[in-house]
Every structure is written in structure tokens, then in C-alpha cells.
Write a structure and sequence with these properties.
4 copies of one chain form a homotetramer. The first copy, chain A, is of the alpha+beta class. Chain A contains 15 helices and 8 strands.
Chain lengths: 385, 385, 385, 385
């Protein structure tokens, strides 16, 4: 099989049928594998079907071994790896976190067989880590926690000091009344952590008045820590979302044929000039016959270009209204938002100022305009409005 | 009965007496119905009054059946359905989520009778879902959760991996010490979920040192997850509120007679030009005799126009001060905020720039001005300031 | 005693010695009173010192009765009540929430005596409500909750539906296994509320697999509700803080002698023109001999005007640098922030534009300037920079 | 040993090898000391190794005594204390919170020996406080809590009123059913605090219907308080982060040789003119041969200046692109972000406006330019782009 096609099939965000099927099979295999490990830990099930579970376990491992081989084989087909020697790319992939998790997943079966009986099948839980590849949001959360790590570590240190202090005091107050529960600081520490996180199992409860006062204080301290934690993370998350939104605008602009040849500084300028604007479903973005004073890039949502004979629909990362920037003619179609959408608007004045500053960009745009307005029929959606 | 009047009566946000009465009856019926279901589940009450409860249950169902018929009959009177065939509108309504809940509510009585005894009356709990129609805030919350679903799903995946991992470790650490509580991973999973959400029933508590260390870690992990959840939702909620505020401005502008004929693009431009400004109660917004340099739209709150003989009050979505934009004459009345209010201010310069760009809008405004300043007495509140 | 002086003494934010002493006595009385009520509820203490506690209770009530009389007598001295008939002002005060709480506080002693024995002294807990007058932050929190009430009620409705639904399901799953704990929906409701708020007493715990699955789901649902609640309140609180900051700017401007005679619309314009800027401690705000291009109002913090012979200190709501706006002369002193402070900066260009638009304001300012630059020594801090 | 070198070694943020080694030793000593205190509280360990633990305890104390002496000796070498008499500086240090904690840490050993046996070793827990010096984030959190203290105290007051009210009601409802658990208000208070913080030990649980209704209400009230707490802190934390970011910009600008001589007002103006902009890794910031229209200060991250023969890397608080502001020549190098970074951009127009307004600044910059463009090779990274 062709590495290119294989790579597309294995791509976590792939849109083709093969990619979808592979994704479904992968997730099913992880679910089955986890089910096997869970079932094997139940004594009655293991006694009744232990052999069957071990066989299934090895089959799942074999499945992941095949995936490992496929991913390793297809690694050189990744866009970023085109011009590097295949062997080095494969080695680099094998040493990446994803590659290591895949190797462990593939090896779980062999390890299970070798170690035999007991709780060897627990090794299969590494399979759950394979799902991380399919959850891009986790990397955002990881970045938020990473950026906030100083504040979080400081909070954790304060938390630890309070915890040890509280358990020492609880030990002093309670160890005569309840030597079983508060007989030493490490024992009292268990009570303190259960209390400060407001879990409250109830297996260790202070009985003396001072112990209860202390408990009340650290419960309130616990919800203060939780609130501070939420405050810190909310602040950093909102920041990360803003950064994400700017980089998205950047990506939309950088992905347009207009701007691909002129390089990052102009892209940055254009990204800064774009004004995001929200439209409710059904709103008319522009009307046929109006003067065209701006162009739009679609950040999210779908718009409908009402041209004859059939309306066109444009989605995320596409653009419209650029003809007006080049010809000065009025809009040649009405554009309507078919679902709530966010458009990035580039004003004609900003656009012309940009062209005056950047002769390189101006010549690219003129060539592009000639191509589009030339005799060949323009690509759908690129010649409207 | 006229479908129009019926539709107004059934409108969840209706302001008339009929609508109010219907709302009260509806909520009372839901409350009574829920009370019946709850009472029927109590063995002593069911033994004593089982028959009465069943009869009341059927009566409540009958009430909802009447409501179902009325809503179905009145559906074609909805503003959005004016020009479509009534039968199709009724069918569309019956297949909408609201229609299905209403059908199930009406059918609960029959199902209860058919299934008879046992816990059949539990079907009546579908009635609670009828209240969702009266809680517009739930749809905002639903939209927030919907927009955040990627981040939430990723967090949930991480949560699930931690949960399974923690219960496997707890199983390893504790299953010898407490075979009853931690004898298999599924059993330990119960402990893990109770612990990580900081519920802490106390029915399963680790006893070994490693088990307690693990418990402490996942309790802290649990409050971290809660804080992350709050952070994600706070970020998306603030975003949704901003979007909501912009769409509100849009709605206020789009609802004005001035702008209704000129279409969405101008509305968007005007909405962008409006500057929201908060006034405390008692603040003077403008004074008689001052030059008029802007007009105001009321986003929320009430203002008093101090004209002779009696002052006028204007509320949400009304406007004032527009005569100055048209005639250049000084303000002819003082305007005072009678409660804290938010006004949207449109500057005269922005307004004239808009008119120069949009001859279509200019002619509409001139006609409007002539109508208002004409011989016929202008509508209250439209000719002041 | 003079009502004016009495009113100042009773003012919750009063700065004089009498006000401080009264505040201390008031808080001490509330603390003692609450202590009496708490002590009286302890059987052993009541048996030993019941009579003493009852006497002390009546003494505290008598103290509050005197306060009630004093507040009633002093009510007409409030600034807002100067021109109204004293009797009507006193009646209005007696009917306000504060007046009613004070009346109940004064009457608690009589009620305690009349009702005698039992738990009559519990009436004294109304005294705690007297503290609300001294916590201005509570009114902000109340306003936040008030503004967010739609969203909160919707969330509460969703919460209630989930609660009833969950307890019905728990009843279905568990009532055979644990008829004691889950024998009816109302009984199961107790379990549901304890679980969904993650309190987890552990007195009712599901035992069947389905019951546990349901419990896990509603625990996660509970932390989702908590996170949504935090998200809603955070959004509205940040909004309220912004509004508060704007109204503070407004209040600073409106409190200046410059602007007091020109009325609200100009104040609003000036408030809009002011740019808040933060300075770290030690930063030089402006330097002697520099051209003066703006004036500053102090929103918070303290600055030092380095004039001979001794430097002056200006604090919150004072202003400096206005001479430069009037004379065009260079700064006549260096100004340094002595603690981190926020200044509101008004640019000279904005100020002159404002004066051109508002001849009324211009003439006031010129009179003010002549007064300050006249032969009489200017007030400290008003003639610098 | 030289006080200067000693001071650098003791600096919590010191970068040298000595500072690192000292930090490691310090943290290890705190960890060991805490471990000793914890171990000594365990009866079995104390019986077996009591003497050894006491000896180790004194050794750790001795270590901290040496640190105390060293810090005291090195105090006059702190940059802020250069020109003051050494004895006074040492006394001031000894009276600062850090000095007091260090003294107590050093004295713990002697106190332990003098008090002997019992729980004397608990005094060693003061050592944990020494770690606060190494957690700068705690001071930010402290500042947030400090700024929010009004709102927090008000919330705490409301919380306290609810708590006492709830426990009184619980006492009324439950004290007949459970005299053991709810026999007095102070006893019921324990239940109330355990419930309202959603800890839920389960040692006191209401049994009457009214008691349970009350419990449900205060559980919901508890999560509302937690959400309000998170909302307040999130708002103040975001505010503090903004202030922090502005002061960071200020610090970057104030640290540049350009601006050090012109004083704070210009620094404030420049800080206001800077526009932070995020660049993804790999983005081209500017290109060789382009006209230079701005200069950049690096707020965070690293950029690579692609000059011959070897590219240069610039990091936080460095700057580039300033030659273009002075000579008008095109960029002489391409600059690429090697990791995601935030640059502060100063536009050429703003810069020239600033120079026109500030002749003092203009002459400094011209001197600087002549120095850099003069015959001597400029410092690396200062003559590029």
C-alpha cells in the first residue's frame, strides 16, 4: 500500500472514508481492550472465562502491533517530513511520545503472555493513552496549565504548608481523644487532605471543640483554594483563547492564495487589519448592486452567495467580495448568512493602503485579478460578490 | 376560537391577561402532576389514596391533551408560518422537540391507565420537561455548552483516563486489604468516581498508605478538573454574553422604523457605530436648548422626557433625540434617566457619514422627518429632544 | 443631643471618633447577644446560668432599643431628607428594611420575656442582620445575583428537573434493594440532593450497578452545574465591576468644583474622555519645567507634589495639573506616585475641544482660574503642577 | 567570604552555580526537617529512633542557624541597601518577616532541646514557611486576595449569618429527634459548616423532613457561595494580570538604555504606545531589504536574527529593529521567531512624534545612534535589522 494513502488513512483528523473507518476500528479496539482488562479484574469472570480474555487480550495487542507497523511505515509521508531520509523520520517518530505509547500498546500482549497470570492484563490500560491523539482540546488545556504553572505551583506550595500545619494541629488537638485516627501527623494528614478537598469520607472526624474549629477553618480554606484555582485557570484560559483566535485569523489569512507568496510580515499586518464580525442566521451580509467597500474571509459558519442559476455555499476559510477591491464595480450578488457565522472584514481603505506600502503584494494581486477575470470560468465561489 | 388569539394566549412570553392566566394554569398543572407522581411513589400514600391519585393523574394528562390540541390548532398563527399551508405547519410543529414533549405529556395518562399499577405513574415526570419552554436562559446555557463541547469532551476524556487509571491502581493497592470494596476494577471505579468528584460517601475508603496517597492525588486532581471546567465555561459564557449584547444592539437597530427598509448591511454598520453608555438613575442625558449632536436608542431602563404639560417616559427599544439629526435645531426637552439605564448613542458625524454613503437611507430618513415634523401630531415620544 | 451630630455618629461609614466608638459598641453588642443565644441553647449552660442569660438578653435588647430610638430621632438629619417634614422622614425610615430589622432587634427582648422559657431566646438571631448595614460589598453581590437572576433561575430549573428525574430513576433502580433509603421518590430526593451537590453524607448510597452508574453521572453533572454557576456569576461580576469603575470615574468628575455647575451631560462627556492609567510606586508622573499637556484626577492611591518648602500629598478624588490647561505655562512642580496609583488623565486637546463646544463650561473654568491665580494664596494642592 | 558573593549565593532567584547549590541544599534541609517532625509524631518510630530523630532535628536547626548568620551578614550587600549603615540594614532585615521566620527556624533546635520530650519537635514546622520566599506567585495571590478583601469579607459575613441561622433552624427542627447531634446551636453549627462547604462527613445528618429541606437549601447555598467566591477572585485576578502585564511592559521599556536617562513620564508614554503582538514559532517578523517602519522589544520568547556568518538569538527584554528608526535604511537582516513569542511593536510614526515632543529624548537617541553606528563594532544583537 502506498505510504501517502496509508498516512491519510491514519491521520487523526482525516476526512476520507478510509480514515473514518480506521478511526472507528481504532476506537472500538481501545474500548474492547479496556473492557477485557476490566473484566479480567473481576474474580468470577476471570475464573469462568480467563483463557478467552487472555486470547482476546493478545488479539487486541496484535491489532495495535499492526497499527504500529503501519504508522512507522507511513511516517515519511507526513508533510513536514518530505525532504528528510525515511529511516531517520521513522526513528524520530518511534522516539516521539505518540510512537512510544504505540510501541507499549503493541508490546502489552507479549508482556501479558510472558508475565502470565496475576494482574498482567492491567498493562492493557496503556491503550487508553492512544485516545489522547484524538483529543486536540487536551493540548490546549495542557498549554493553559503549562502557562499557569508558576501560579499553580505557588498555590500548591501554600496548599501543602496549610495541609501539614493543619494536620499537626489536628494531631495536637485530637491524638488523646482519638489515638486511632489522629495518632500521628501522617495519619492526621489523611484526615486533612480528605477535609480540605471537601471530600469528607467521614472515616476520621474531629471530636474536640478545637479540632472542629480547625476543621471548619480548613474547609473554608479548601473552597477558597478551589476558587483561587478556578480564578487562575479562568484568567489563563481566556488569554489562551484570545491567542488562539489571533492565530486562527493568521492561519486563515496565511492560507489564502493572495498572501502565500508575500511572507509573514504582510500576513501579520493583514491579520491585524481584519475585524471579526458576527452575523445571525439569515442576515444579509451584502446586497447585489451595492458599492463594494470591503472583502470578507469566513472564520466560521456558512454563507450563501445568491447567484444564478443555483446559489453557492461557502464555508470556513473561504472568502468573497474581493472582486470589488480590484475592479471597483458594484456587488454582483447578494450574500446571506445561512447559519450564525463570524466573518473577518477587510476594509477597502486598509487594503489599498496595504497595496501602496507593499508593491510586491500589489503585483501579486493584480496577476490574481487578471487570472480570475480572464476568459476561463473562475472557480466556484471565487468570482462572486 | 380564533387561532391568532389562541396563539397569543399560548405564547410563553405573552404579555396579555389570557397569556398570564394560561401560564399560571400550566405551571400549576405541572406542579400538581409532579406532586401526584411523587405521592404515588410513597407506599403508605399509595395504599391509602391510590385510586384518587390515578384519577388525578388522568385528569392532569387530559389537561395537557387539551393543551396539545390547542397548540397544534394555533401553530399556523406563528409569525414565521404565515405563508405556509396550515397542515404542513402543524405537522412540522408536531415533529419539533416541543411538540413531541407535549404529545408525550398528553399520552402519559393513557399509558398510565394501560400499563396500570406498578410504577406507571412515573411516566408523568415528562411533564417537567414542559417547563423548559419557559426558561429562555437554558438555551443560552445550552449554546455555551455546545460551543465549548470540544474542550469539554477533551476534558471528559482526560477525566475518564484518569478515572480508569486511578481505579486500576487502587485495585492493585487495596484488593488484598479490602476484597469487598476494591476486589475488581469496576468495583474500584465506584470508589474513584465518588472520590474524584469530592463527593466522598465514605462507603469505600482506602486503607493502605499507597492507596491513601493515590486518593489524595485524585482528590486534588478532582478540584483541578472542576476549576478547569469552570475556567472553560467562564470563557465561553463571557464570549456568548458579548455576542448576545451585539445581537441585542442589532435587534434594537433592526427594529427601528428608520432602518427596516434598508436591509441588513446598513443595520450592521449602524450597530457597529452605536456606543453603549451607562447612566445612573437621575443623570441628565441631555438638556433643553443644548445643541443636539447625537441620538439615543434605549437598550435597557427608562428615561423621562421633560416636556409640557406632562413628562413622557420611554423604555427599552425606543429612541429619542433624532430630530436634532434632521433639523439641526437645539434640543427641545431635557431628558433624565429615571432608573439606571443603558443607552446606545449614535454620533451626528457618524450618522451623516452613513447618510452620505447610503443615498437610499438618506431618502428614507428625509421622508420620515417630513412625516414627523408635518402638521399631524407626532406619536408620543417620537418628536421630543 | 443635636440630630446632626447623632446622625454622624450613627453613620456606618463615619470617620469621627464618636462614629468609631459607636461602631465598636454596636459590633460588641451583636457579638455578645449572639453568644447569649448560642449559650442558652446548650442544655447544661441553660440549667446553670439560665436566669443570667435571660437578663443579659434583655439588656442587649434594651441597648438596641436605645439605638432604634436614636436612629429614628436622627433620621431627618440625613442629607437626602433635609427638605422634607421630619415626621414623614422618620416614618419612611421606620418602614425601610433597616428600620424594620432595628425594630425587631429592639423588640426581641420583650418577645423573649413574654414567650418565656423554651427557645424564645432564638429570636435574638435577628441581631445578626444588623451587621448587613456594615457590609457594602453585600449589596454589590446582591446586584450581581439580581442581574444574573434569569440565568440563575434557568439553571435552577434545569437543576430541579435533573434532581427529580435522578431521584425517580434511583427509586426505580434501588427501591427493591434498599426499601429503607430509596423506598419512595421523596426519600430518594434526599439522596439526590446530597449527591448532586457532592456533599455525600454516605447515609444513602446506591448499591445496584445501574444506581451507581446514575450516581456517577449526577456527580459529574453536579460539578458541571457548579462550574456553570461560577461561569455565570464571574461574567456578571466582571460586568458589574466595569460598571462600578465607570460610575466611580463619573463620581470623581462630578465631585470636582469645575464640573458641579455644568450638569450631567458634560460630566458624561468628560468621564468618557478620561483615560485611566496605572503608575507603580515611585514613578514620576510629570516633571517641573515640562510643558503641561494634560491634567490628572486621582482615582486611587497617593501622589506627592514636590513643591517648596515641604512636599504635598494628594489622595483619592483630588486632582492636579489643571493650571497648565489654563495658563499654558510649563509644570511648576514634579509629581511622583508614592504608592501604586491609578490616575485619570484628561488630555489638553480634549479639554479645549470640550471648552469650545460648551461656552458655559468655558466661562466657569475661566472664573475658577482667576480665583486660583488671584492674589489670595490658593488652597493646598490646587495650585501645583 | 565576600558579602557580595554571599548575597548572590543566597538570592532566591540567583542564576549562578553557588545559588543553585544553595537552593538545592536549602530545599533538601527543609524536606528532611519536615520528615523528621512527621516521623517523630509516629509513636512506633519515636520509640525505636527517638534519640536519633532529636539529634537530626538539632542538626537541621544548626544548618538553619548558619543560614541565619549568613543572611544577616550578607544583608548590606542587597542593591537597595548600598548607601545605608550596615548595622541598621542588618537590624532592619532581622525585623522583616523573612528575618523573623529565619530566626525562629534557627531557634527551633534550642527550643526542642529545652522543652524536651513531648511534642516539642512540632516547632520544626516553622521550617515550611521558609519556602514561601521561593514562591513569587504566592505574593500575587496575596495581592489579589488583599485587593478583593472587601468583597471577600462581605461574602464571609453573609456566609456567617447563613451559618448561624441554619444551625439555629436545624437545632429547632432536629434537637428532639437527635439530641446527641443537634442538642444545641454550637453542636448544630458543626453540622452546618460540614454541610455548607459540601464536605459531608456524615457524622451528623438531619432526619426530619424540615431538617432535610433546610439541608438541601444550604447545600445549594454552599455551592452558590463557592461560585461567587470564584467569580470575585476571577475578576480580581484578571485585573491583577492586566496590571502585571502593563508593569512588565513598563519594566521592559524602563530597562532599555534609550530611556533610562529621560525619566518616568516618557517611559509611561512609550509603554502606552507599544502594541503587544503574538507570533507563532517560525513566523517571519521582518525581512532583509524591507523598509523599516517599526522597532520591536521582546516581551517573551526568542527570535533569530539571520545575519552572516552565524545567526544571533535574542531573548526576553532585548530589542531589535531600532537602526531603521534612526537611519531610514531598509532592514539589514531577516528576523524569525524560533519559539512562540510576544513582541512589543513601536511604530515609526509614534516614535518620531515622541521625539518631536521630547527634544531631550531626541538628543539622547542621536548620541546613542552615533555610538552604535560609529567605527567600534556594536554589541551583538544591537546593530541588526
Amino acid at each position: 500500500m502506498d505510504p501517502e494513502r496509508l498516512h491519510k488513512m491514519l491521520d487523526p483528523d482525516g476526512a476520507g472514508t478510509a480514515a473514518r473507518l480506521f478511526r472507528a476500528a481504532h476506537h472500538a479496539l481501545v474500548a474492547i481492550g479496556t473492557g477485557i482488562v476490566l473484566a479480567d479484574s473481576v474474580p468470577s469472570l476471570r475464573q469462568a472465562h480467563g483463557g478467552l480474555l487472555a486470547v482476546l487480550f493478545c488479539l487486541v495487542s496484535a491489532g495495535f502491533a499492526i497499527e504500529y507497523a503501519a504508522r512507522c511505515y507511513a511516517a515519511p509521508a507526513a508533510p513536514a517530513a518530505r525532504h528528510r531520509p525515511p529511516l531517520r523520520v521513522r526513528l524520530a517518530w518511534a522516539c516521539s511520545p505518540g510512537g512510544i505509547v504505540d510501541l507499549l500498546s503493541a508490546a502489552a500482549g507479549i508482556a501479558g503472555l510472558v508475565l502470565g497470570g496475576g494482574d498482567a492484563l492491567l498493562l492493557g490500560l496503556v491503550w487508553l493513552c492512544k485516545l489522547v491523539r484524538y483529543a486536540p482540546g487536551l493540548s490546549i488545556l495542557g498549554r493553559v496549565v503549562g502557562r499557569a504553572h508558576r501560579a499553580l505551583l505557588s498555590l500548591l506550595l501554600g496548599f501543602g504548608i496549610v495541609l501539614v500545619g493543619a494536620s499537626s494541629l489536628a494531631f495536637v488537638f485530637e491524638h488523646n481523644a482519638q489515638p486511632q485516627r489522629f495518632g500521628s501527623i501522617p495519619t492526621a494528614l489523611w484526615w486533612a487532605i480528605v477535609t480540605v478537598t471537601t471530600t469528607g469520607y467521614g472515616d476520621a472526624v474531629p471530636k474536640t471543640p478545637y479540632g472542629r474549629l480547625l476543621a471548619g477553618l480548613i474547609m473554608v480554606g479548601g473552597i477558597l483554594v478551589l476558587a483561587l484555582l478556578a480564578a487562575i485557570l479562568a484568567s489563563f484560559y481566556a488569554d489562551e483563547m484570545r491567542r488562539h483566535a489571533f492565530l486562527n485569523t493568521w492561519r486563515v489569512v496565511a492560507g489564502l492564495p493572495f498572501f502565500q507568496q508575500v511572507g509573514a510580515p504582510i500576513v501579520a499586518d493583514v491579520a491585524r487589519l481584519l475585524r471579526p464580525r458576527d452575523y445571525p442566521a439569515g442576515a444579509v451580509v451584502c446586497r447585489r448592486g451595492e458599492p463594494g467597500d470591503c472583502m470578507y474571509f469566513i472564520a466560521s459558519g456558512t454563507v450563501e452567495i445568491r447567484v444564478n442559476p443555483a446559489p453557492l455555499r461557502l464555508g470556513s476559510e473561504q472568502f468573497f467580495g474581493e472582486i470589488a477591491l480590484l475592479t471597483g464595480a458594484p456587488r454582483n450578488a447578494t450574500v446571506v448568512a445561512v447559519e450564525p457565522c463570524t466573518l473577518l472584514r477587510l476594509d477597502i481603505a486598509d487594503f489599498h493602503a496595504l497595496m501602496a506600502q507593499q508593491p510586491e503584494l500589489a503585483s501579486i494581486i493584480k496577476e490574481e485579478a487578471e487570472r480570475r477575470l480572464g476568459p476561463a470560468p473562475a472557480a466556484a465561489g471565487e468570482r462572486v460578490a
